[in-house]
Amino acid sequence: MPYEYRKLSPKEREEIVRLRNERGYPLHAPPHPFRVARAYLISAVNFEHQPVMDSPERRTEFETLLLNSFKEIVDDIIAWVVLPNHYHVLLYVQSLDDVSAVLKRLHGLTSREWNIQDGLTGKRRIWYKFADTAMRNEVHLHAAFNYVHYNPVKHGYANDPYEWRWSSLSLYYEDRGRDWLRKHWKSYTPSVDFGNGLD
């Protein structure tokens, strides 16, 4: 993230730039090394973690826009969560290029609307570029599923993931039940560092 980069010493910055150049990554954006058909965890953060989606109404509006935007391009939206300052979507898509195009439109639209609503046109950046994590295998995919649904608890927005309205957890609860979700959590508990740097 750019604001983390600003906290680094000149020597640390030099090392990061060297590594990014060596790997062929863009200097000022998250790398997207995988672009082929597969499952990805897509994550995006409000710039400098500002809680731009703090109101329930704005989260509801954004959740609807997010899901409708992805319906056009994805084979399957597996899980999602929308929080006051970031979101995650676990999905299967044919091309990451399609995700880039959808998020460019969605982030542009919401940035403009929210800055107008908040009287901050031209004064506030809303989004940082999205990050993606390609799912390596089924275990990684299931751990990401649990990570997404546990995210409101991880960040202190809820004491219980079932309390958080802006996620797909309630759909799985209705469809498969709490016992299935508990077994799934026990079988695929995300590691402590799962998602580091994503939110």
How would you summarize the topology of this molecule?
Elements: H1 2-5, H2 10-23, E1 38-45, H3 56-71, E2 74-82, E3 86-93, H4 96-117, E4 131-134, H5 138-154, H6 169-187
Antiparallel strand pairs: 1-3, 1-4, 2-3
Helix pairs in contact: 3-4
CATH superfamily of the largest domain: Transposase IS200-like
- Give the helix tally: 6
CATH class category name of the largest domain: Alpha Beta
Low-confidence stretches: none
Q: Provide the structure class.
A: alpha+beta
Summarize the structure in words:
This protein is an alpha+beta fold. It has two domains: 1-27, no CATH class; 32-187, Transposase IS200-like (Alpha-Beta Plaits, 2-Layer Sandwich), CATH 3.30.70. 46% of the residues lie in helices and 15% in strands. The protein is built from six helices and four strands; from the N terminus they run ααβαββαβαα. The protein has helices at residues 2-5, 10-23, 56-71, 96-117, 138-154, 169-187; strands at residues 38-45, 74-82, 86-93, 131-134. It has a four-stranded antiparallel beta sheet. Strand 2 (74-82) and strand 3 (86-93) form a beta hairpin. The radius of gyration is 17 Å and the shape is globular. The mean pLDDT is 88.
List keywords for this structure.
single chain, 199 residues, alpha+beta, Alpha-Beta Plaits, 4-stranded antiparallel β-sheet, 6 helices, globular
